[in-house]
Design goal:
The complex is a heterotetramer of chains A (539), B (478), C (304) and D (307).
Chain A lengths: L3 E14 L2 E14 L3 E6 L5 H9 L7 E10 L2 E2 L5 H7 L4 E4 L3 H4 L6 H11 L4 H14 L5 H5 L8 H13 L5 E5 L7 H18 L2 E5 L3 H7 L2 E6 L2 E7 H6 L4 H8 L18 E10 L2 E11 L4 E6 L5 H8 L7 E6 L2 E2 L5 H8 L2 E4 L3 H4 L6 H11 L9 H11 L16 H14 L4 E5 L7 H18 L2 E5 L3 H7 L2 E6 L2 E7 H6 L4 H9 L5 H15 L1
Parallel strand pairs in A: 3-8, 3-9, 6-7, 7-8, 13-18, 13-19, 16-17, 17-18
Antiparallel strand pairs in A: 1-2, 1-4, 4-5, 9-10, 11-12, 11-14, 14-15, 19-20
Chain B lengths: L2 E7 L14 H7 L8 E3 L7 E3 L2 E6 L5 E5 L13 H12 L15 E8 L2 E7 L5 H4 L24 E7 L3 E6 L10 E8 L3 H10 L4 E5 L10 E14 L9 H10 L2 H4 L9 E2 L22 H13 L8 E6 L6 H14 L4 E6 L1 H8 L10 E8 L6 H8 L11 H12 L2 H19 L2 E13 L3 E2 L16 E2 L1
Parallel strand pairs in B: 1-10, 14-15, 14-16
Antiparallel strand pairs in B: 2-3, 4-5, 5-7, 6-7, 8-9, 9-10, 11-17, 12-16, 12-17, 13-17, 18-19
Helix pairs in contact in B: 5-7, 10-11, 11-12
Chain D lengths: L15 H11 L1 H29 L30 H36 L2 H16 L2 H12 L3 H27 L3 H8 L4 H38 L10 H8 L8 H27 L6 H10 L1
Helix pairs in contact in D: 1-11, 2-3, 2-10, 3-4, 3-6, 3-8, 4-6, 5-6, 6-8, 7-8, 8-9, 8-10, 9-10
The chains are: A alpha/beta (539), B alpha+beta (478), C mainly alpha (304), D mainly alpha (307).
The complex binds adenosine-5'-triphosphate (2 copies) and magnesium ion (2 copies).
The site of one magnesium ion (MG) has 6 residues of chain A, from helix 12.
Chain lengths: 539, 478, 304, 307
Amino acid sequence: MAEHLLEVRNLSVEFHTAMGVVKAVRSISYHLGRGETLAILGESGSGKSVSSSAIMNLIDMPPGRISSGEILLNGADLLKMPAHERRKINGSRIAMIFQDPLSHLNPVYTVGWQIREALTTHGADAAKAQSEALRLIARVGVPHPERALDKYPHEFSGGQRQRVMIAMALALRPDLLIADEPTTALDVTVQAEVLALLKELQEETGMAVMIITHDLGVVAEIADRVVVMEKGELVETGTVREVYHNPQHPYTKRLIAAAPGKGEMHAPQGFGEPVLRVRDVRKHYGAFEALKGVSFDLMPGETMAVVGESGSGKSTLARILLRLDEADSGSALWKGRDLFTLSPGELYKLRRDLQMVFQDPTQSLNPRMTVFQLISEAWIIHPDILPKAKWRERVAELLVQVGLGPEHMGRYPHQFSGGQRQRIAIARALALEPQLIICDEAVSALDVSVQAQVIALLDRLRREMGIAFIFIAHDLPVVRDFANHVMVMQQGNVVEMGTVSEIFDTPREDYTRALLAAGLDPDPDIQAANRAARLRQVS
Amino acid sequence: GSGPIKIVLPEEADLLEPCMATRSNIGRIIMQNVSETLTELDVRGDKGVMPRLAEKWEQNSDGSWRFHLRQGVTFSDGTAFDAKDVKHSLDRIMSDKNACESRRYFGGMTVTANIVDDHTVDFSADPVQPILPLLLTLVTIVPEETPLEFVREPVGTGPYKLTDWTPGQQIVLTSRDDYWGEKPEVTEATYLFRADPSVRAAMVQTGEADLSPSISQLDATNPATDFSYLDSETVYLRIDHNIEPLNDIRVRRALNMAIDREAFLGTLVPEGAVLATAIVPPPTLGWNPNVKVPAFDTEGARKLLEEAKADGVKVDTPITIVARSANFPNVTEIMEAIQAQLQEAGFTIELKFVEVAEHEQYYSKPFKDGRGPQIVAAMHDNSKGDPSFSMFFKYASEGTQSGFSDPKVDDLITRASAAVGDERAKLWSELIAYVHDEVVADVLLFHMVGFSRVSERLEFKPTMATNSMLQLSEIGIK
Amino acid sequence: MLSFFRKRALASLISLFGLIVMVFFLSRLTGDPAALFLPVEASAEMKAQFREIHGLNDPVMTQFIRYAGDVVTGDFGESLRKARPALDVVLEAFVWTLWLAVITMALVTGAAIVVGSLAAFRAGGFFDRFSSIISLIGASVPDFWLAIVAIVVFSVNLAWLPTSGTGSLLHWILPISVLFVRPFGIIVQVVRGSMIGALTSAYVKTARAKGVKSGPIIFVHALRNAMLPVITVIGDQAASLLNGAVIIETIFGFPGVGKLMIDSILQRDFNVVLAAILVTALAIFLMNLLIDLAYVLLDPRIRH
Amino acid sequence: MTLQIPDAALIEEPRFIVRMARMLWADKFALCAALFLVTILILAIIGPAWLGDAAIKQNLRGRNAAPFEWDRGWLWWMGADALGRPLFARIIVATQNTMMVAAGAVIISSVIGTVLGLVAGFSSPRVNQVIMRLADVIMSFPSLLIAVIVLYILGSSILNLMLVLSITRIPVYLRTTRAEVLEIRERMFVQAARVMGASGKRIVFRHILPVVLPTLTTLATLDFAYVMLAESALSFLGIGIQPPEITWGLMISQGRQYLTNAWWLSFWPGLAIILTTMSLNLLSNWLRIALDPVQRWRLEMKGRNNG
Ligand SMILES: Nc1ncnc2c1ncn2[C@@H]1O[C@H](COP(=O)(O)OP(=O)(O)OP(=O)(O)O)[C@@H](O)[C@H]1O
Ligand SMILES: Nc1ncnc2c1ncn2[C@@H]1O[C@H](COP(=O)(O)OP(=O)(O)OP(=O)(O)O)[C@@H](O)[C@H]1O
Ligand SMILES: [Mg+2]
Ligand SMILES: [Mg+2]
């Protein structure tokens, strides 16, 4: 067995909470060879992040406890190693890309400093570290690398932060890279670049990659073998092709069946007056122009998907529409009233109509409030929506709608997995019964089965209640399934706008075409063919 | 032997102005060390007023005084001392351009100096001053060039001159070679200032200082170095006679009887303290040995109160005792004990402790209108040997701190102030007895003692005047 | 940035002026300096004369206008007590206080951050309990106890250090040690509390994943994030030292501004009080400005 | 379809009070602290009625009696003061005044300071500027001067003293709160609340305040000690509480001169202050953990292990 780089045997992890012990991971075993790529699939909350944290020795113990098992790296049990030896392994031999880049980057240091630290911690000198950092950040495709090194995490877009995390993890060319949903916030072109980068490094250094993802396309593109988890247990394992073509476990079957991008495309819906009319919105951060005149109309009951490269201003647009940031110029007429000039009082009344699901679920939930408090806060703020007696019932209902259970009501955000947190955020937005929901990567952290479920829910709401959506996403198949209209953005500009079918079937702009081409197919065979075709093109 | 010494004092001198030398924190440093006076009171023996810069003096027939000055005396700036300096010194004190404190001793009189010749000066006073030579113990002599405003570098004829003054830290006096008198053993005195008594005591113990004129009774534990001395401070309760029930003499008598003065000695008040029967301490002219401390008699006090009550005096009205925090050692405890003793006799007493500025408002006139019955606890210092420095202020109708008005008292004060010799002593004695026994003006408590710590290498005995004057020439070095 | 400074300076000037006005008028309600300067036996004429000389007889408004005019020309008046320019008196004392405050706070800050951080790192552990007890005793022990006990032990019994006074470096040891104790106790607790939060953040996990050692994790990653409340409290403690450590100055015979201020307040030496407040206020305003700048430097998310 | 989370959901979350009690039981230090504080509170209420007379009974012959001389009777076990009054009784009687001044001053200053800090951190730059400069002014106003002025003009009483001490403590809370608000208001969950239409008040009190509160509580507990000692200093200068009222601070200041001869005079009240501060602090540290969902397991785990 010594040929395996990593071997996890009978690993069980449990957490202590007020309501008893949560067994997050139950006796799972898998292995990973040198140069191999293992994808871990599984529903959100199934213990993917926890098991990889266990490998990194990052579980807070207590409250967590590794109740059984061993983790062998080159045959040595990491769990039995003295602390200082263990520490030397982190970063240099095993590195990790975290799921939630904003909270995992230190807010008070520049990203350059944080990348350099990874290098200097393991012995690089300052000058070397600087040049390496520059090389890395350029390699992961962050624009203006020199300047980027001196910026702080909050000055980046979600995708850019994720790339910073990737650069940091790759800094020391580890033997094993654990990537926890490394591409959820990346647009498809960048995603393709990053995946190519991983492959390249794998070839160069024989690095093994353990990738946790919900995106079957990514699995198809990069993985050799797959492990599927459900409720803390390992339910299926095999090569990518085996699992895709011949799933055994009902969950796996369901997962593969739920892969998006196969349904019918929605036709445009709304007729008559648009509910939201955005005109020429501009925004500067210092000298940097994040939005360069964005205009569009949104019809009632329609979904406007916003796709485009990471850092193109999508989140900025969302924030501006909600008056979380002030636009420099332009207007946004919501049912005829300009959102940008409303007084605080008027804005308050409109707030319940306009809701948002943020890109970063961890940060957008108050860590001191229980799920019940988080969701019912909406009704405290807008008391006319629901009488207090019905709150419990309705919270339970909402939780079920987003794929959680009523029993989660008393828990706090840190006790959930990333995807679960995102669902809480969605439930919170729904609680206000708004007429427009802006979803910033709202479903990218969800596994495809839940994603399908949530999309179905949103779609139903859209149809039944006429809620309009601005749907910011990188995942084109999801967009294809859900949107009526699509707006493609690049560098603060709208490059193309049209109905789903126009964009997906007859894209006009090169950038749109490139985006579509970079999309990944969940079928490993198709994906392999695509890749081969791409390589041919390049050469 | 001879050599330098270090003296640690509780309070820094904020000025070293000769005409302010009557203030104790200043006088302690410069009086007779830097600035001398024409005459000097003998505080160690009973020689009374002795010559200093004046060799002798006599009263002229018109009541003015002629002083013959010592010759061959020079100031520390090198100029010679003569009659013009004397006149200027007096004029300067009397000037209204400054706030010279010594002037207060000349309240109600005009004194002028007339130069007869270089070494003779006539002082005429209106009204005639029988104690002028005593008053002149308070007039420090400065060179005639001294401006009317306060100076920072005192120039005097004394055995020492100021050589260093670092405010907040130290003052250094160095002995003069050209001093007219005997050369003292202390060649240099460094004054240090520490407000905390236990630190002062510790400094002498560790050798960081040689002399601390005042330490706490509690620290005075080493008989080899620690001495107690009667320090001329008198603690008393000033009664405001204007407000019922304190306007009734029986009530005032009861106050006096209800306090067990003896019980304080050796407990809250140091052993050596003397029970007071007058506002001035025993060696003062006219101190009356026949006046007796009121006997402690709670029952008697209670009876007197009941009597007064029967006559309709509102003895139940709460009486406030106003005391000043940190006025003297144990002031709070003493006042609390007094309060308890008075309550025992049937009084209703409230205590009020205030800081110095507020205390002053209760103590001195004009008193506030609409005040309730009040007693002010205060401490009075007279080491000058004559009651005139106290009696007017404390007891005359016009006196600033007087709580009553009695024509006989006023008359006695006027007559005693003008009298000389035995007559003067007799009148003061009469006044003291009258105020104490007939008027029952106040509740006199203790003449306090102070404690000093003197390094064993020094030869020094503190006196009643040490508080306000510490002559370095009296310190011997073993 | 420059406009920030200009605005800040203007606002500070206005509040400084307000402070002076307030102190000027309020202090004059608290009694008559003449009665205190002159002995109790002084006659009414003498008191009147004294007031005349020092211009205390004029209406308070006139006095204020005169004072304000003088201050503008840099004249802070004379000390009644010391018959010297009030500003000289104050500056002399303030230098001592400033040194005392700066040295003490530098030592306190260093020590408290290290101890508080380590305590937070193993919250609930032995070192945490131990340092908590020590620092809490420090924060609540009466300072004169420490001062007197220190003198008795180190000066009288052991004879290692001088009891009090100034002069050599040795003289600074006791006062600084005694002054050290309380701010140390307070800041340790604040650091500890703030660090416990910071050490559980996700970015600390990232650092651990990078293999960063505990030392840098505590003192580089978490500490800077935890510093906001800490520097605020450091500022508060420094301000109270700048206003003068009365007890310490009194016991150790240290000629600082605290004792000066107390004496001047009790003696109603208004010019000195005003000058002292102006000087210390200026120092405190400056310090607060530095602290506000430190916020921005420490946390890039805070913008003005 | 509902996704089940293993096991966890099955146990119903216990009631708040029960949970707090369990967590208190889990931390024995905090438990002792809480018991001590409850005792103090009871003594503060019944002290004056219970031992009021014993505390003022003077006995000059028994002055400065040493502690632990058991034959004098239990009241004297801490020794006696300079007037022979039993220190034990005096400390108990003084609890009421001490707690009133200290708690009063700390509560007033922390509430005012915190509210102003929240306002300064959350509202327009102009309001911020005004409040912050006001804080500067108070901060540079020497507390003794405020004391002299207020107590001179209004007279010295427990209430006024409370007022004086609280004025001087406002800036710490104000500045601390504001500094934290500046950072917290940039956090995402605050923005999420804004999107929901939460009013400024709600954001400040529901979302921001809980994050600042632990730091403020730490400060407040330490301020208890500060206030009690400051009160002692004021008494010593003759502008604070004065006899026959008693507080621990006053007892300390009265015992000051006896420090080298009869240490117990100021030792016991000093000890009372130290113990009170320590208890408050232990309790506030416990509370910080108990109220923080991310930290709470520490106590819950222990509760489990111990009980
Ligand atoms: N500190 C904690 N306390 C209690 N439960 C926890 C804690 N951390 C994680 N869990 C639980 O452990 C389970 C596994 O979480 P994990 O983060 O591994 O999920 P995941 O598979 O990564 O999901 P996702 O894809 O949504 O990120 C979840 O049910 C979560 O609620
Ligand atoms: N506070 C800020 N200061 C400076 N620049 C900023 C700030 N916030 C965002 N930016 C910049 O604005 C650009 C747009 O950011 P935005 O978050 O809108 O991107 P996005 O389209 O949402 O990208 P992603 O898909 O990666 O989330 C980015 O280049 C980012 O660096
Ligand atoms: Mg996860
Ligand atoms: Mg974004």
